[in-house]
């Protein structure tokens, strides 16, 4: 029905009716769109079409090979969408018409367009001026944030890194978007447990030094990441710096108290460990001394036992010598020998 058409320009010069919904982003300037289309006059006479062809038509937006209304129509579509459009002469071929397409002067046009897909042909970075690079950085940051909200942190990280390559403006706005991207990257890395990389991006944001609010975020986020790698004292210093920038910040105050308490407990445990170490050392030395004393006593006892044993052996040897070398004297034989001796002497 004609009443289904809605204006997509303020003056109603281009109207649209959706036949099939699409999904995704809208094509932009320099996008290469793959489409099927049919253009007719008000009497439904075709003047331009690729319907029935095996391959879709490639149309690059803003190249001027179609009327202005056609460009506006395409930019209102999403991939997969099929829609009908009504275009007035002001947005069509105007008072001159188009003799090559057999479009008369001041003709109202009808189009049915199906957008299959499109690819954005970006202008090369080195060909952009600083303002264009700034705009591109904003677009990429927006895409990165969409990924971030969907918890697609790796994809968000890639978009933010890409956006950083376009940050060349040394103005207040240029520094702010650069620091913003660096801070966003620090969050992505933190959530991916890439803590050291998160710390590096916070440092980069502080080096950019765009404003106090972003510096506050950088100090706070770096402190959180530092705690994850056990750098509590460095985290404390960053939180103190953040506190100086905003003494009323509740998150900073709570984290500052938490780190102080953690360090207090750590120092207490360390002190106890050192105390125990000295006590253990004294006890160990005492045990060593006692053990050495016991060993000395055992050694002396063993030496004494050996001496006694040697004495016993010597005594036994002496007895054996006496027994074998000095035979026992028979009393009768001795008396007889004495008498004989006397007899001889006499």
TrEMBL record:
Keywords: Isomerase, Rotamase, TPR repeat. It comes from the Eukaryota. It catalyses: [protein]-peptidylproline (omega=180) = [protein]-peptidylproline (omega=0). Signal peptide: none annotated. GO terms for molecular function: peptidyl-prolyl cis-trans isomerase activity. Residues 328-346 have a biased composition (Polar residues). TPR repeats lie at residues 216-249. Residues 283-346 are annotated as: Disordered. The keyword Transcription does not apply. Residues 30-119 form the PPIase FKBP-type domain. Residues 309-326 have a biased composition (Basic and acidic residues). It holds the Pfam family FKBP_C. Its EC number is 5.2.1.8. This is peptidylprolyl isomerase.
């Amino acid at each position: 029905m004609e009443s289904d058409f809605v204006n997509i320009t303020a003056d109603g010069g281009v109207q649209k009716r959706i036949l099939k919904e699409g999904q995704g982003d809208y094509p932009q300037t320099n996008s290469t769109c793959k489409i099927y289309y049919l253009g007719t006059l008000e009497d439904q006479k075709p003047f331009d079409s690729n319907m029935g062809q095996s391959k879709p038509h490639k149309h690059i937006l803003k190249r001027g090979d179609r009327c202005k209304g056609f460009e506006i129509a395409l930019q209102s579509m999403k991939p997969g969408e099929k829609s009908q459009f009504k275009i007035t002469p002001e947005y069509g071929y105007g008072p001159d018409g188009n003799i090559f397409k057999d479009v008369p002067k001041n003709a109202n046009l009808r189009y049915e367009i199906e957008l299959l897909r499109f690819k954005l042909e970006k202008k090369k970075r080195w060909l952009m001026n600083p303002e264009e690079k700034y705009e591109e950085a904003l677009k990429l940051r927006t895409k990165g944030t969409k990924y971030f909200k969907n918890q697609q942190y790796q994809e968000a990280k890639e978009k933010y890194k890409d956006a950083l390559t376009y940050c060349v403006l040394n103005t207040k706005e240029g520094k702010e978007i650069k620091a913003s991207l660096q801070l966003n990257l620090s969050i992505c890395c933190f959530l991916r447990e890439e803590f050291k990389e998160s710390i590096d991006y916070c440092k980069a944001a502080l080096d950019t030094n765009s404003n106090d609010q972003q510096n506050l975020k950088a100090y706070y986020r770096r402190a959180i990441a530092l705690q994850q790698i056990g750098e509590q004292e460095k985290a404390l210093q960053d939180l103190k710096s953040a506190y100086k920038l905003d003494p009323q910040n509740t998150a900073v105050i709570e984290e500052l108290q938490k780190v102080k308490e953690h360090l207090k407990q750590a120092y207490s445990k360390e002190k106890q460990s050192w105390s125990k170490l000295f006590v253990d050392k004294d006890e160990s030395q005492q045990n060593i001394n006692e053990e050495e004393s016991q060993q000395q006593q055992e050694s002396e006892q063993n030496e004494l036992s050996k001496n006694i044993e040697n004495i016993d052996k010597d005594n036994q040897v002496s007895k054996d010598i006496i027994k074998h070398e000095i035979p026992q004297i028979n009393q009768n034989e001795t008396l007889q020998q004495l008498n004989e001796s006397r007899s001889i002497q006499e």
